[in-house]
Specification:
It is a single chain. The protein is α+β, with helices and mostly antiparallel strands. Helices cover about 30% and strands about 25% of the residues. The protein has two domains: about 140 residues, NADH Oxidase (3-Layer(aba) Sandwich); about 35 residues, putative fmn-dependent nitroreductase like fold, CATH 2.20.180. The protein contains six helices and seven strands. Strands 1-2-4-3 form a four-stranded antiparallel β-sheet, sandwiched between helices. Strand 6 and strand 7 form a beta hairpin. The protein is globular.
């Protein structure tokens, strides 16, 4: 798929099918993250894949701040990738760049994903046995989508919502976010 088209179609998915995510797909996502740009090429990130103990991980997450709803255990992600960063090394944005690479790779493999920053880092630190010298930056939930999502173009609103079981995601007009210089 064309990168631009993938970016246009990729949305945060919050409802997943009860179907296991293959280890090979997770490995491909990690490799995409590994190959992503890193400030000064320091490569301070490490990745933990999670395909078991999903309920314990799920309990350490918060979902969809604008919605009065959270996925049930039947709808929860079927895999996670935890993004760790060396505490004293690297640029904070490296984790976000890696997360986007993971999500785009997942999309091309037929998976949905959601980057989670609203997480219980202390609880996850214990569950995931995060190595000394590293900190948990982000968690990416993924699985086979069990919902549709669509962009609402040229909206002044930012709050996403469900309508007829479709997640509607408002986006500001291009002319509002584009500042042309020269």
């Amino acid at each position: 798929m064309d990168t631009y088209e993938t970016l246009k179609e990729r949305r945060s998915i919050r409802r997943y099918k009860d179907k296991e995510v293959p280890k090979a797909v997770l490995k491909k996502c990690i490799n995409a993250a590994r190959l992503s740009p890193s400030a000064a090429n320091l490569q301070p990130l490490r990745f933990i894949t999670i395909r078991r103990d999903l309920s314990d991980i799920f309990e350490c997450t918060a979902w969809a701040g604008y919605l009065d709803w959270e996925p049930t255990e039947e709808e929860m992600p079927r895999a996670y990738i935890a993004i760790l960063k060396e505490k004293e090394t690297g640029w904070e944005m490296d984790a976000g760049i890696a997360a986007q690479s993971i999500c785009l790779t997942a999309k091309n493999e037929g998976l949905g994903s959601c980057i989670l920053g609203a997480i219980d880092k202390e609880g996850l630190k214990d569950l995931l046995s995060i190595p000394e010298g590293f900190e948990l930056k982000l968690l990416v939930g993924m699985g086979y989508p069990d919902e549709k999502s669509e962009v609402i173009e040229d909206s002044e609103d930012v709050e996403y919502y469900y309508e007829d079981d479709v997640l509607k995601v408002p986006k500001k007009p291009l002319d509002e976010v584009w500042i042309e210089h020269g």
